[in-house]
Amino acid sequence: MSAMIKRSAFCTFKQVAELTCLHIEHPKFCAEICLQGAQLTQFKHKQHGDLLWLSPDANYQRGASVRGGIPICWPWFGALARNPSAVQAGLPSQQAHGFAREFDWTLDDVNESAHGVRLTLSLGHDENTLKIWPHEFKLVCQLELGDDITIALTSHNLSDTNMAIAQALHTYFPTPNIHETRVLGAGNGQYVDALDDWQLKKQLAGIGFKQEVDRIYLGNNQYQILTPSKQFSLTCNSHSSVVWNPWIKKSKRLSGFPSDGYKNMLCIESANVLSDYLQLAPGESQTLRMQLSCVS
Q1: Catalytic residue list contains 25
Q2: For the chain, which has fewer Cβ within 10 Å, the N-terminal or C-terminal residue?
Q3: Range of the domain at 20
Q4: pLDDT of the residue at 210
Q5: Catalytic residue (one of 18, 45, 170, 284)
């Protein structure tokens, strides 16, 4: 891995507090990826600026996701008890959002060109993961960074039994003003409101932010995020997604998050959750893909 980076024109390893990160300085962008969790924490395009939000109070600590960027939630999403019974599979109560974001991944490949950088990282089962989750697996994350951000997360079932998973690419977007930010693309769709007893509701227009929002949208929604400074496009191949902003009270309780951080961020998570969870047979694989672009 070190030899691979020594030959790189754009990539260097950098220690940030407790975490080893890959720093990329490309003619088109600069970026940072933590080996823990294969988490893209920063991406700043030379023309469009920041495409991701990173908390100014983010902690780079072992065993905890960095607050911002695109954490990977796998093999369950949110509280384990809120996942389908097949995903819970008799597991004892576990930390929210699975364990993939807590372990160091292996950097398998770096491919560079004038157009961008493609990285491949992987995580496999070992004695530590088997204590948490009784499946043999390989998880591969391929990031293509250039004018856009493209992520492909592939789950391989290497065990001899079915493997049920829920997952999400938990993307944090920046905005100068959440009050003047809207999300289009879910109109006339349905969502589950996690803040109102998980009731199923209908989306009648664009999504605005005047209070805490925690919604699971059903269907293959392709989003446009309109902020006062930029317009983003987010596409994915899944049939569920999550829109989230913690608002005032929850912001005060979140780790690595300023009390007024809700004003300058929102999350849209490309996901396979609730009835959209995946059931992989032995030897089967599945890929969750997302693409994030700044269109203005």
Answers
A1: no
A2: C
A3: 2-294
A4: 97
A5: 170
